[in-house]
Amino acid sequence: MPLECNSKVADLLSEMAKINQDALREVYKAKQYAAAASALRSLNFEVQSIDQVDVIPMLKKRDGKIRKYVQEILTTGKLTALQSLRQRPDVKSCVELSGIHGVGPVTARKLFDKGYKSLADLRAPGVPRDTLTPTQWIGLKYYEEFKQRIPREEVSHIATAVREAANTFMKDEVRCYCVGSFRRGKADSGDVDVLVECRDVSLANDLLMHILNDLRAGSPSPRSGILTDDLQVGDVQYMGVAALQQPLRADDQAPPVHRRIDIKVYETDAFPTALLYFTGSDKFNRSMRLWAKRKGYALQDKGLFRDRSEAAASRVRVRDEKDIFDALQLDYVAPKDRNV
Ligand code: DCP
Ligand code: MG
Ligand code: MN
């Protein structure tokens, strides 16, 4: 259970991080704010006076800026530096524009400099096609929908459709997992992540194309129309948009919400490491990768390698996630415990 006061301080610091990342393009500062916020969130006691933050090394220095901000929030409940940043028109615009899927901070700033200061400006009639890439136009179209969290039940329905599509390609069942935050047990997710196994690596692209065609409008399958737009179609990786064709509950009148979906196909040998990687969290991955590196291994989505060369010959044979933990002399961590 997060502690109320700590999360209030942390939320304001997270907003500073976001503004530094998306609008000011101060990447280093953004990381500092985010790190301080996450350290505060992980404390097991409520911070009431500034001396108590001494347990966080990066906040220990007396004249540190973030420490002073924390102090201000603790005593006044506000952060004036943040309040004035929020008022700046360029900051407001860049935060809004970089919320469009596919628009990074640099593009957001360019759009702002060209005079596009809001979503509404980009949605106005007569905006030239080449103002955004095709992917960014789709991001703009579904801006509000992509911002909504996806309930677990809906994630599961969309992933099931992908699994059913995959299983019409091969005679034997293929392994198909709904990964990301869903597999870590979260009640809702930001997108739908699906990992599909292909036993014959030479058929991986065929399998992915088969799945996509099965789910697109106009296919004869009962799942037709679930995929509504493509963002990026790679050989074995797909990023796109999905929407359920029927509401989850019969009495639900609202039209289906468009969701971000990622589908990835991996060969059997790489499947366990891909499963580990795409289950995350990204922080959990970072610490496990670092651990592997210290032991002389290279841990990637494509495999666990005995040395840094990542040559096929140095690939460690793993049949499941447990084998990866074993090889690295780690106790197995269940997906629900990887939410670090
Ligand atoms: N991943 C990673 N590093 C990245 C991006 C992704 O290690 N830079 C891995 C870990 C993630 C997984 O891929 O858990 C899926 O990426 P998502 O961005 O979909 O993140 P989650 O599914 O964890 O969260 P969300 O609910 O926001 O989708
Ligand atoms: Mg996800
Ligand atoms: Mn994803």
UniProtKB/TrEMBL annotation:
SUPFAM superfamilies linked to this entry: DNA polymerase beta, N-terminal domain-like, Nucleotidyltransferase, PsbU/PolX domain-like
BP term (GO), one: double-strand break repair via nonhomologous end joining
Enzyme class: transferase
Database matches in InterPro entries: DNA-dir_DNA_pol_X (IPR002054), DNA_pol_B_palm_palm (IPR028207), DNA_pol_lambd_fingers_domain (IPR018944), DNA_pol_lamdba_lyase_dom_sf (IPR027421), DNA_Pol_thumb_sf (IPR037160), DNA_pol_X (IPR022312), DNA_pol_X_beta-like (IPR002008), HHH_MUS81 (IPR010996)
Catalytic activity: DNA(n) + a 2'-deoxyribonucleoside 5'-triphosphate = DNA(n+1) + diphosphate
Domain annotation DNA-directed DNA polymerase X: ranges: 4-339
Main location, first listed in the record: nucleus
Record Gene3D superfamilies: 5' to 3' exonuclease, C-terminal subdomain, Beta Polymerase, domain 2, DNA polymerase beta, N-terminal domain-like, DNA polymerase, thumb domain
SMART domains (UniProt xref): POLXc (SM00483)
Protein name, as recorded: DNA polymerase
